[in-house]
Amino acid sequence: MNAKEATMTEQACEQVPGTASVVQRVGMVAMSADGACMVVSDGTAVRLAGGRALMDATAVIATAVLEHAVWLVTRDAGGHTLHRFDHAGTPVAPPTALGDLGADVTLVVNRSGSRIALIEGERGVLVREREGELVLEPLGERQRDRRVLVGTRGVAERRGPMLKLRSGALPPLIVPDDLKGSAIGTAAVVLEGTTLLLELVRPDGATAIVYDLRRGELRTR
């Protein structure tokens, strides 16, 4: 947890009665964009901070808090499964099978507005919720770099010196020449969906670059 997240956690604890002592004893797993909903784990159960248990912690491999929703990914012998809850901890639908996504699965979501998630390990799937129903788009095998969720615009993939949206909703985003050998690290869409922050990692360090999604061009680095 970085300093900003720690500050937001403290503020959220003040807003939600009974959560301050809970967060001191357990680890925070995920938090909503406004800090009002936190999911924590004590190693035994994954639960809402100060609230009900959601699932056995040993089964959960990824967690995210969306607007008015909590999504958990579990893995068993049959593959990976998505579980959906509201912010009160009530299941909102039966679990959804995702298939076997392989190792090192991550869950990246659009935290505000439309519910969309990129769930990716050795293979990936894009999940959209529409009127309570899920639409799954298999993405196939992961290449050298993980895919990037660009908010509601969907998924972008590294193609040589470019980052291209599968939907074609934006022109390809060009990686600067001196960073073309870098690997994609973390990414986030900010400023009401207008800006993509992208971390490019090399053996000697990491560089953050900023793309203007309205114009499809590099703004700064």
Structural commentary:
This protein has two domains: 1-142, 6 Propeller (Neuraminidase); 143-221. The longest helix has 13 residues, at 3-15. It contains two helices and 20 strands. A hairpin with a 7-residue loop joins strand 15 (162-165) and strand 16 (173-174). With 221 residues, it is mainly β. Mean pLDDT is 86; it is low at 1-26. The strands form five sheets. Strands 1-2-3-4 form a four-stranded antiparallel sheet, covered by helices on one side. Strands 5-6-7-8 form a four-stranded antiparallel sheet, with no helix packed on it. It has a four-stranded antiparallel sheet with strand order 9-10-11-12, with no helix packed on it.
Q: What's the number of structural domains?
A: 2
* End-to-end Cα distance: 24 Å
Number of β-strand runs = 20
What's the alpha carbon Rg, rounded to whole Å?
Answer: 18 Å
- Uncertain spans: 1-26
Secondary-structure-derived class? mainly beta
Give the C-level CATH assignment of the largest domain.
Answer: Mainly Beta
Which H/E pattern describes the elements?
HHEEEEEEEEEEEEEEEEEEEE
Describe the protein's topology:
Blueprint: H1 3-15, H2 19-25, E1 27-31, E2 38-41, E3 45-48, E4 53-56, E5 60-66, E6 69-76, E7 79-85, E8 96-99, E9 106-109, E10 116-120, E11 123-130, E12 133-141, E13 148-149, E14 155-159, E15 162-165, E16 173-174, E17 183-190, E18 195-202, E19 205-212, E20 217-220
Antiparallel strand pairs: 1-2, 2-3, 3-4, 5-6, 6-7, 7-8, 9-10, 10-11, 11-12, 13-14, 14-15, 15-16, 17-18, 18-19, 19-20
